[in-house]
Write a structure and sequence with these properties.
The complex is a heterodimer of chains A (356) and B (186).
Chain A lengths: L1 E3 L4 E3 L1 H18 L4 H10 L4 H25 L5 H27 L3 H36 L13 H6 L6 E4 L4 E4 H18 L4 H12 L3 H25 L5 H21 L5 H27 L5 H33 L17
Antiparallel strand pairs in A: 1-2, 3-4
Chain B lengths: L5 H27 L2 H6 L2 E2 L3 E4 L13 E5 L9 E5 L11 E4 H6 L3 E4 L2 E4 L3 E6 L2 E6 L5 E2 L2 H28 L15
Parallel strand pairs in B: 3-4
Antiparallel strand pairs in B: 1-10, 2-4, 2-5, 3-7, 6-7, 8-9
The chains are: A mainly alpha (356), B alpha+beta (186).
């Protein structure tokens, strides 16, 4: 146990480092900060709610930098796309926070927040699942036909539509190989920023699908570019939380040490898989987080009578972290087996890359 | 795997590792010498009495805490310092019992020349887990510049750790190639 003088609690260091590690793996792999997983974990360890959010947001900023450095090395970041989006994201986050304050003033924030979270995550999950399953099927078919299958495969018609919008200025994102109106990117930043600010999260789980299905970035580039966004928007969030006195910096430092190792593994693991594999993990993280939020919503709507609902919401969230980590580790394991010509399940070859 | 300079990787690894350790040590040093804590528990947001909430643990309505009131520079145990809104908090103070609370008399009240605290800590149910609700960090203003310091520190730490990890893989001769995003059918 470590004595956190600022937070005024004692908490186990090992669990803090482990949390940083597991969320680092998931975040580095699917390009999210993982706030919806870390905050409940910190509350369980004994940190007050306001401080759990602050510690989480500050550690996300540091983890964003760690992951961005690794994704840059692998060529997964489109700087033009990222920088064009940052302004819109920041503006959106501010508006989202104001919207949250407004619903708080109406006394509706808890229910509205959780309902919005459940609906958004469910819609994203369903769309991502359907699209990814179709892309997976198409890839498997191409593999069977003996064609050389690339890193990416999407069947979404969204990018073609949005890239045709002729609003000046049109920008060229060389790494992502996209030519699109800057306003599409800015509006995507604003909308995802509003949702992130309103829901009180970093917003990666909304931005990554938006980058893929609206802007048209490949999944790997969406992940890397979103982590760049997270480093910047997380830094801004950390500043706001720190100024309000919501951060115990030593807890953040221990988490970032764990996150460094996790983020390395998660980021490097993307080199072993194809785009649909990342989107599958993203969609599973969405549906699991959705179930957690639904249990919390049910707890609130039943007048906070049934403690079991709240308990399962937390257990579910913590279990989700471990489940996703194991899924990512198993994908890397199967990729190595596949590379070495060993037997792998039938669904694997279309999702992983045989490393030379 | 692409060819990498393991020598350069080794230098990069040890250099950024040293920077990371240095930042970690510096953060710990400022935490334990009280600098970071004094930035955090910086000024009072209301008139009242600055206290060390930790000293109030274990007391209750049946067994109230009696705090000696005085202009102490450093609060030790059951002591309280009268403060006005905007005053710097004394050393070891981590919460303020407001004059309004004392006037109300539910959680704390004045008794002779002492501050009698009757409900220093409540246990409330929150999200299925118990947490403590004390006077800690109540009516306390954090130094806004400590926010800037926190962000600079965490970004620098992230930068150092990221480059340490990159240096490590280079040192081990494991350099990741850039991913070919658009080769083959897609």
């Amino acid at each position: 146990m470590f004595d956190f003088a600022i937070a005024g609690i004692q908490a186990p260091l090992f669990l803090l480092i482990l949390t940083g590690f597991t969320v680092g793996i998931v975040g580095g792999f699917i390009g999210v900060g993982g706030g919806y997983m870390v905050t409940p974990a910190l509350i369980v360890f004994g940190f007050p709610g306001y401080m759990a959010s602050g510690i989480d947001m500050t550690h996300i900023a540091g983890k964003g930098v760690v992951s961005t450095i690794r994704h840059r090395q692998m060529g997964n970041i489109d700087w033009v796309l990222g920088l064009a989006m940052i302004g819109g994201t920041m503006l959106g986050v501010e508006q989202g926070v104001r919207l949250l304050t407004w619903t708080k003033d109406l006394g509706l924030s808890g229910v509205v927040l959780l309902t919005a979270s459940v609906v958004i995550m469910l819609v994203l999950f369903i769309y991502t699942q359907i699209e990814t399953a179709q892309a997976h099927k198409k890839m498997s078919q191409l593999e069977k036909e003996g064609q050389k299958v690339g890193r990416e495969m999407t069947v979404s018609k969204g990018p073609a539509f949005f890239q045709r919008i002729p609003l000046f200025p049109i920008i060229r994102c060389r790494t992502a190989k996209i030519v699109v109106s800057m306003w599409v990117i800015v509006v995507v930043g604003i909308v995802t920023g509003i949702l992130a600010g309103f829901l009180g999260v970093g917003g990666g789980f909304i931005r990554v699908p938006a980058l893929i299905y609206i802007v048209g970035a490949s999944t790997h580039i969406a992940v890397g570019t979103d982590l760049l966004e997270i480093a910047v928007s997380g830094g801004y969030g950390a500043l706001r939380h720190s100024m309000m006195g919501n951060v115990d910096m030593i807890a953040v430092l221990f988490m970032i040490v764990g996150a460094m190792f996790g983020a390395q593994f998660g980021s490097i693991a993307t080199a072993y898989v194809r785009g649909p594999a990342i989107r599958y993990i993203l969609s599973y993280s969405l549906v699991l987080a959705c179930v957690g939020a639904f249990l919390r919503l049910a707890y609130m709507l039943t007048g906070q009578k049934y403690e079991i609902l709240s308990f399962f919401a937390v257990v579910f969230t913590l279990g989700e972290m471990l489940f996703l980590c194991l899924f990512i580790i198993s994908l890397v394991y199967f990729s190595v087996r596949y590379t070495n010509g060993k037997k792998v399940p039938a669904w694997v070859p279309a999702l992983v890359v045989a490393k030379k | 795997m692409a060819e990498v300079s393991r020598g350069k990787g080794t230098i990069k690894f040890f250099f950024w590792l040293a920077v990371g350790i240095g930042l970690f040590y510096y953060a710990f040093h400022t935490y334990y010498n009280g600098q970071m804590i004094s930035w955090y528990y910086y000024k009072t947001k209301a008139d009242g009495y600055a206290v060390n909430a930790d000293a109030l643990k274990g007391y209750s309505k049946e067994k109230p805490a009696l705090l000696k009131i005085g202009p102490f520079e450093k609060i030790e145990g059951l002591q309280a310092v009268p403060v006005k809104k905007g005053d710097r908090l004394p050393i070891n103070a981590n919460g303020v019992i407001t004059s309004a609370q004392v006037k109300k008399g539910e959680r704390a009240t004045l008794e002779d020349d002492k501050l009698k605290v009757m409900i220093p800590m409540r246990i409330r149910e929150a999200k299925g887990f118990k947490y403590k609700d004390t006077f800690m960090h109540k009516e306390v203003q954090t130094n806004p510049w400590s926010g800037v310091w926190n962000v600079v520190l965490i970004l620098a730490m992230g930068f150092a750790l990221g480059l340490t990890a990159e240096g490590f893989t280079d040192m081990m001769g494991y350099k990741l190639e850039k991913i070919e995003h658009f080769e083959g059918a897609h």
